[in-house]
């Protein structure tokens, strides 16, 4: 293919793109054309590192252009060659500058993208009191550099995939060779190769294509905005997944107890961290069962309640026109609406609306005799318990299950709550993510993993990595 044909084919592939720039340069009586999209290419770098070396060849004592182009070190920026017009056009669309030289059948491709991006900022959804404040941004190269900054070892491997027929979105799997279970990597590679779609724009969309159990509300991937959380997971033998344009990463495999952990646990004293983990576990259970227990007991099993407390509850509900189940559903749905409104309205007024709105509506509802004061207390405690769960998707899952248990508790009493709880626990025991049981180390019972999952032991005692993640090298530190 001649250079004129290559240039015309490139123009044909890029037609109707008014933002594509065709920059002609004549070097030693040879016509050269640069093709690039000005908005996504570093024009200053293009001029300094590529155009200027070519222009210097117009001086009388310069070497012939053909000989210079054969020298891979002529340009001060790496270049690749391509003779396919379609591939070259895709390169232009992804931030490359393409050089077509008259008389040559191959184009030179220079990767010099320049996209708008924000600076590394503090994590918004995983805030900590003690520990690093940096979080991922939408630029995957910056995100990878944040991980490289924390794990400076050649065994840290980064494997790239490309998803989307049109978006060509780069996706990276980050792991440590010799630690991560090869079966996890093989599963990830097989799943990525099966994804055939127009495009992906979020890391959560990628997980929806995985051939894993979808008939559950429990999250089977751990999302995080924090580089230190990804680095810590990689050192445990897990793998991180990062996608271009997404300010968060996925971690696999995952367990229920890993979703209850916070990165701050490793920056606090092991005593405080262990106490906080146990509190999280307790309130995670409370966030699911408390409203259903209250409704079922006050409706069907009132003999369980002490007499004085029963009289207090009865007097508070004396003028309430609704049964306890309807009362609880009204309050829970109102709380969900306030939570969603607080997240969607502008940030300066969001927290004020959600907090003051809950207080005002709760007091007004009690004063109007629509709901009872004990019900407001139960719903408030349940809402606080949900906020204690550090993983957002796990919190949503627990909120959905709360409504299921609430309806069963209001219709079948304690029997319905116990039966539903047994079904949920059995379902969690049957789940596994990439070969890891979802409830390990509780089911199956592995006491050696308790010291870093149920509670946090001192760092000097964590000599082995958790068995749940099947790390190839179990030893974390040398015994003394």
What's the number of extended β-strand segments? 12
Q: N-to-C terminal Cα separation, in Å? A: 68 Å
Q: Which range best describes the helical content: under 10%, 10-25%, 25-40%, 40-55%, 55-70% or over 70%? A: 40-55%
Strand order of the largest sheet: 1-2-4-5-3
Compute the CA-based radius of gyration. 30 Å
SSE layout:
Elements: H1 3-13, E1 20-27, E2 30-37, H2 43-55, H3 65-70, E3 80-82, H4 85-93, E4 96-101, E5 107-111, H5 140-150, E6 156-163, E7 169-176, H6 182-194, H7 203-207, E8 222-224, H8 227-235, E9 239-243, E10 249-252, H9 270-299, H10 307-316, H11 324-344, H12 347-367, H13 373-388, H14 392-412, H15 414-430, E11 432-433, E12 436-437, H16 450-453
Antiparallel strand pairs: 1-2, 2-4, 3-5, 4-5, 6-7, 7-9, 8-10, 9-10, 11-12
């Amino acid at each position: 293919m001649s250079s004129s044909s290559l240039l015309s084919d490139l123009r044909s592939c890029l037609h109707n793109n008014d933002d594509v720039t065709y920059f002609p340069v004549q070097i030693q009586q040879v016509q050269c054309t640069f093709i690039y999209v000005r908005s996504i290419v570093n024009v200053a770098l293009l001029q300094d590192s590529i155009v200027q070396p070519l222009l210097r060849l117009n001086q009388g004592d310069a070497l012939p252009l053909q000989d210079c182009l054969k020298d891979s070190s002529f340009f001060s920026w790496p270049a690749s060659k391509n003779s396919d017009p379609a591939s070259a056009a895709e390169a232009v669309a992804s931030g490359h500058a393409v050089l077509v030289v008259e008389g040559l059948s191959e184009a030179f491709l220079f990767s010099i993208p320049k996209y708008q991006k924000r600076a590394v900022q503090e994590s918004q959804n995983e805030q900590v009191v003690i520990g690093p404040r940096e979080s991922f941004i939408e630029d995957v190269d910056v995100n990878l550099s944040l991980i490289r900054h924390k794990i400076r070892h050649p065994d840290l491997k980064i494997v790239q995939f490309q998803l989307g027929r049109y978006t060509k979105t780069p996706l990276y799997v980050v792991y440590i060779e010799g630690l991560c279970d090869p079966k996890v990597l093989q599963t990830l590679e097989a799943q990525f190769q099966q994804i055939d779609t127009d495009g992906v724009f979020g890391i959560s969309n990628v997980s929806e294509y995985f051939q894993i159990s979808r008939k559950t509300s429990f999250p089977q991937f751990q999302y995080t905005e924090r580089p230190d959380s990804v680095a810590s997971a990689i050192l445990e033998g897990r793998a991180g997944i990062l996608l271009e344009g997404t300010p968060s990463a996925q971690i696999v495999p995952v367990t229920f107890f890993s979703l209850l952990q916070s990165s701050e646990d490793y920056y606090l004293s092991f005593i405080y961290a262990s106490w906080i983990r146990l509190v999280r576990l307790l309130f995670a259970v409370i966030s699911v069962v408390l409203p259903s227990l209250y409704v079922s007991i006050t409706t069907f099993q009132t003999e369980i309640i002490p007499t004085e407390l029963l009289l207090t509850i009865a007097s508070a509900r004396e003028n309430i026109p609704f049964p306890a189940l309807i009362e609880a559903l009204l309050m829970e749905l109102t709380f969900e609406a306030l939570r969603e409104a607080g997240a969607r309205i502008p940030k300066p007024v969001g927290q004020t609306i959600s907090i003051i709105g809950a207080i005002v509506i709760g007091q007004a509802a009690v004063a109007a005799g629509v709901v009872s004061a004990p019900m407001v207390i139960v719903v408030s405690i349940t809402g606080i318990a949900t906020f204690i769960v550090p993983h957002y998707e796990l919190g949503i899952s627990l909120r959905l299950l709360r409504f299921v248990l609430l309806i069963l508790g209001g219709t079948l009493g304690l029997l319905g709550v116990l039966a539903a709880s047994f079904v949920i626990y059995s379902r969690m025991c049957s789940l596994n993510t990439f070969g890891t049981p979802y409830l390990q180390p509780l089911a199956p019972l592995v006491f050696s993993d308790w010291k870093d999952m149920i509670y946090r032991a001192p760092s000097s005692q964590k000599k082995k990595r958790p068995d749940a993640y099947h790390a190839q090298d179990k030893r974390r530190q040398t015994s003394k």
